[in-house]
Amino acid sequence: MGKVKRELGSDAIILHTRNVKQSGILGLFKKNLIEVVAALEEKNMDSEYHSITSNTALDKMKSNINKDKSNAPKNKDYLEDEIKKIKSMVETVVNTLDSKKEELPDVFSKYFDSLIYNGVNRDVAFKILDRINQQINMANKDSIQTQEIILYSIRDYLGEPSPITYDGKQKVIFFIGPTGVGKTTTLAKIAANFSINKKHEVGLITADTYRIAAVEQLKVYSEIMNIPIKVAYEIKDIYKSLSNFKDKDIILVDTAGRSHKNEEQMNEVKELIESVNNKEVHLVINTTTDFETIKDVLNRYSFITDFKIIFSKLDEALSLGNILNTKYFYNNQISYLTTGQNVPDDIEIPNMDKLSERLIGE
Length: 362
Ligand SMILES: Nc1nc2c(ncn2[C@@H]2O[C@H](COP(=O)(O)OP(=O)(O)O)[C@@H](O)[C@H]2O)c(=O)[nH]1
Ligand SMILES: [Mg+2]
Description:
By secondary structure, this protein is α/β, with parallel strands linked by helices. The protein has helices at residues 2-8, 47-50, 57-70, 76-97, 106-117, 122-135, 143-158, 183-197, 212-225, 235-244, 263-274, 291-300, 321-330, 352-359, and strands at 13-22, 31-39, 171-176, 202-206, 229-231, 250-254, 279-286, 308-312, 334-338, 347-348. The chain folds into three domains: 2-70, no CATH class; 76-158, no CATH class; 171-351, Rossmann fold (3-Layer(aba) Sandwich). The chain contains 14 helices and ten strands. It has an eight-stranded mixed beta sheet, sandwiched between helices. Strands 1-2 form a two-stranded antiparallel ribbon. A hairpin with an 8-residue loop joins strand 9 (334-338) and strand 10 (347-348). Mean pLDDT is 85; it is low at 44-71. Guanosine-5'-diphosphate binds next to helix 8.
């Protein structure tokens, strides 16, 4: 700590330490070294780092947490969020009061309830069932046929899964999305899958250089999986990395995922993506997020003409309705679902039949 403070001043924080073994002659002069990664808080950085003022890393964390709890910033973003919450509450109340369900045939009633129970937006549930009712005479259908017809319809709205494929031509894959949704972890899972299981040549680039810890996180995975990694601090580093990776099959690019509300960062992501050809963009969305926030995220990324969606943290989600809600309103293809923190196992290509069944399950 003393050495860190001498070099970086008293505001420095330690991000990471590890023991490094140094080899000596016959192990006689072996010395144990400690590698310390420290950083200095930049003024006017994101609020995530703002409350770091006290002396020890632990105190800093504590003050961060307390600050979050006690005096949340009453700024524009905060008010916007509050308004959104109120709006969503009002919508829920209005939806509960209206009698849409009664407009549907009786045989649909239990499916309507199941869809709502599974987190499907009332409007979406009604429209899907109403659509079926308009198309098909339900009067002479038994319960098995009814269920089948509803499953066909939901299955159709979910569409075909669209995982990353390698067709002999180099592809650059960007992972975008808000902070903490699982971009880096998901990228590592996919990298392992392509490199270890499918024996493709994979290269990693991280453009998330706002936090030293973020770069370190991907470096650790790259070391374990023995996949090369480049760090891109600015656009020209991307060109350098791409030329370095000219023989790779798949190049996975991690992007900075701080607030999607920060326009400057959104522009950086835009510039980065637009500077590359042969690309695919995958937006990672935390499935546990409320649908109003998901809509907000999707609207803010709408400058990207074509992106696929990875739904993360299904293991933590109480319901899967948001997947159908998102598909219904935005129609982006779904590429993967992630189901836990384990790299590389906790990732799946969505099975739309199973998903449909779960959406009408009780
Ligand atoms: N439960 C659960 N946690 C996950 C999943 N994917 C990622 N995480 C965790 O979410 C946290 C943030 O992940 P990270 O990849 O760093 O998010 P990023 O900021 O978007 O890059 C980490 O603790 C991950 O282990 C998932 O599918 N399920
Ligand atoms: Mg990350």
